[in-house]
Write a structure and sequence with these properties.
Elements lengths: L5 H7 L1 H20 L13 E7 L5 H16 L5 E9 L2 E8 L5 H17 L23 E2 L2
Antiparallel strand pairs: 1-3, 1-4, 2-3
Length: 147
């Protein structure tokens, strides 16, 4: 059998094999040093939480008078993907998720719009419905943009 023997060829051309190995190691080292990396890459989680409490209210009252109104108002956001709400007696929590294609620069604006829309609902809520906000001091419900 008279085929090509790579080991025999490499032993006869040692200097060329060493040159190739050195060139490959240098190219790998150079490409590694130019590799883009960041310890904590920046990304934006495009979700917010709207929270409201109404002490003494039943689940039906919270759903009809608070949760449904908040969700309908949030549907006006153009970048809204979906909402998920959990209502118990006396409190409701609405998780607001923005679309993935919403630019990170405008997600803060959408959070402000969400807080503003929940604030405008304050007059329509029952008088004992209370809530806190971390974005505005007089908001009806808490709208927190997590980044």
């Amino acid at each position: 059998m008279n085929g090509f023997n790579l080991s025999e060829w490499a032993l006869r051309h040692r200097s060329f094999v060493w040159y190739l190995m050195l060139a490959i190691v240098l190219a790998g080292g150079l490409s590694y040093t130019r590799l883009g990396r960041q310890e904590d890459p920046s990304f934006t989680i495009k979700s917010m939480i709207v929270y409201a409490s109404w002490p003494g209210a039943t689940v039906e009252e919270m759903t009809n008078q608070v949760t449904d109104r908040v969700e309908r108002k949030l549907q006006e956001l153009g970048s809204l993907d979906f909402t998920k709400s959990y209502t118990t007696a006396g409190q409701t929590t609405v998780y607001v998720n923005l679309k993935d294609d919403t630019p990170a620069a405008t997600s803060g604006t959408s959070g402000s719009r969400c807080a503003t829309r929940s604030t405008t609902l304050r007059a329509t809520f029952p008088p004992t419905c209370r809530a806190r906000s971390s974005t505005t001091s007089s908001a009806t419900c808490s709208a927190t943009s997590m980044r």
